[in-house]
Amino acid sequence: xxxxxxxxxxxxxxxxxxxxxxGHDVVCIxxxxxxxxxxxxxxxxxxxxxxxxxxxxxxxxxRLSFTSELAGAVAGAEVVFIAVGTPSRRGDGHxxxxxxxAVARExxxxxxxxxxxxxxxxxxxxxGDEVARIIAAANPEADVAVVSNPxxxxxxxxxxxxxxxxxxxxxVEDERARAVMTEVYRPLYLNQAPLVFTGRxxxxxxxxxxxxxxxxxxxFINEMADLCxxxxxxxxxxxxxxxxxNRIGGKFLHAGPGFGGSCFPKDTQALVRIGEDFGSPMRxxxxxxxxxxxxxxxxxxxxxxxxxxxxxxxxIGVLGLTFKPNTDDMREAPSIDIVRGLLDKGARVVAYDxxxxxxxxxxxEGLECGESAYDVAEGADALVLVTEWNEFRSxxxxxxxxxxxxxxxxxxxxxxxxxxxxxxxxxxxxIGRPVGAxxxxxxxxxxx
Length: 448
Prior knowledge:
alpha/beta; 18 helices; about 45% helix; six-stranded parallel β-sheet
């Protein structure tokens, strides 16, 4: 099939590379000429495991191409995916649909023959109706079926998620689109990936409902962690006991410093605004947002308490800055609030992250960066594990202690065991576990 994708950002690029790998003829469109030139050279503007290789392979095979000219790409396409950003609108938390609407107007002027326009961007309920209206108003002769096809990609595992999805959701109002979208995903459908057809508004709602529920699940276990600390229970064992119930499941039951990233904060805010617009308040989601914001700020206070209640003039080493491992994404990362909170109290903060340091330096004034975990530990009065990159899971504790000014380890991901850390002479603080408890692990879900 001939497929055009408007937007060569994270979702558009992953979608394009994977569909091309299935054998489709895919062209990704982006107005950023510099980005297009880099992609044509096989240079990937984001960090996502295995994406560079997938793009390079399909570029070489001629199945994937990049352009900044939308008209030509859309004119020959059977399906046009809209995969542009929908950031939170400044001031009110609503999803900003200006990019989606602009693409719809451009697509309307360029389509030829029957074309399916599939919105993959995360958009509020009713956006598909508006996209259809915009296209019809701009080009009454256009033969277009607008569908909703939300993405469910976890940063750091996006290719695996695309090729082995839990489900593929397609919201249609024009039955002609059903056969077209079935053909797009036929390679996955043959592998038994559930292809779920719904109404368009239902598909739009599924995306927000799924992300909000996962955000609430993370927030619930974080509150349980606080209660476990107060009551002398172990949150990891509580989570395991809960997760073995198939109705609950163990994923996203990992206590930590709060959720961040490009999806959960933005989408929970947008869902609250959608609820307000329809006169159906989303009280659980509102509370989830408030608790999460408070938690991120509270983590700095936890570090300060571990340092004896005062960090002025002290050096704090931070391991991990991105909102999760295997990405360079710093959007809404808990580390931002933690580092700023420490800097505000007079600490010197030196951090190391395998992928996120350039972005972090641009966001956090006063942040210093090291070249490794051991470099960051040199002369530090405390070490804080914020993001559980694999390389932080088996650190040489003896080497760390020898480098540090004071052996204080604050583990915000419960990666280590208390007895192991204590045996090396550290004062150890973790999340939701009594002293001497915990089996380590901290295997956070890739979407967190």
